[in-house]
Amino acid sequence: MTNENETEKSPIEAEPKPNGKYKETVDGLTWNYEVKDGTVTVLNSGKRKGDVVIPPMLGGHPVTAIGKEAFYMCGSLTSVTIPDSVTSIGDYAFAWCNGFGDEHAGLTSVTIPASVTSIGKNAFYKCTRLVSMVIEDGVTSVGNEAFSCCDSLDSATKALLQSRWPNSL
C-alpha cells in the first residue's frame, strides 16, 4: 500500500501511520519510507545533494533503519547525519556516493552513532572521497566490503576497520 499524499506536518507531530509505504516532506526534503510494526526504514529517496540530516521520526514513528540502496549513487551528497534512533544501515545504503568526477562533490564525512549495531555489505562501497568517519561503540556486525574502495580514509581508520572487522575492507 502506497500513500501518495505527502505530509507537511512536523515528523514529531504526525499521527502514527499504519504499516505501509509512504512519502513525506521534512524540512524541504521528500523521504520515501516504510512503516512496519511501529518502526521506519528509509527507502530510496532520490538523489540527495549537500549535507543531509536524516530525520529521527517519520510517519509518527522512529527511524530505525536506513534501507538497502537508500542513498545509492548520490554523488552530490557530501555529509550525512544519522539520528540516534537508527540501529541498522542496509546493504549498499551509501555505495557509490563518490562525486562522479566532480572534485567538490561526494560523501566526505559520516558519523555512525552508538545506536547502530549493524552495517550491511558494501554499505559505503566506492565512497572514494570519504575522509572523515567516526564509528561510535555499538556496532557489532559489519558486512563484507562495507568500506571497500574508500580510498581517502586515513591509515589509522583503515587499520581500525581491519582489526575489528577484517572483511570490511
Features:
globular, 9-stranded mixed β-sheet, about 35% strand, Leucine-rich repeat, LRR (right-handed beta-alpha superhelix), about 170 residues, 4-stranded parallel β-sheet, mainly beta
Compile the SSE list and pairings.
Elements lengths: L1 E6 L12 E7 L2 E8 L2 E4 L6 E5 L3 E2 L2 E6 L9 E6 L6 E2 L19 E4 L5 E2 L12 E4 L5 E2 L12 H10 L5
Parallel strand pairs: 1-2, 4-7, 5-8, 7-9, 8-10, 9-11, 10-12, 11-13
Antiparallel strand pairs: 2-3, 3-4, 6-7
Number of domains: 1
**Percentage of residues in strands:** 25-35%
Let me know the CATH homologous superfamily.
Answer: Ribonuclease Inhibitor
Quickly count the helices. Answer: 1
Low-pLDDT residue intervals, each spanning 5 or more residues: none
The CATH topology name reads Leucine-rich repeat, LRR (right-handed beta-alpha superhelix)
Secondary-structure-derived class: mainly beta
Number of strands: 13
- Average predicted local confidence, pLDDT: 90
Query: Nearest-angstrom radius of gyration?
Result: 16 Å
End-to-end distance: 38 Å
Shape: globular
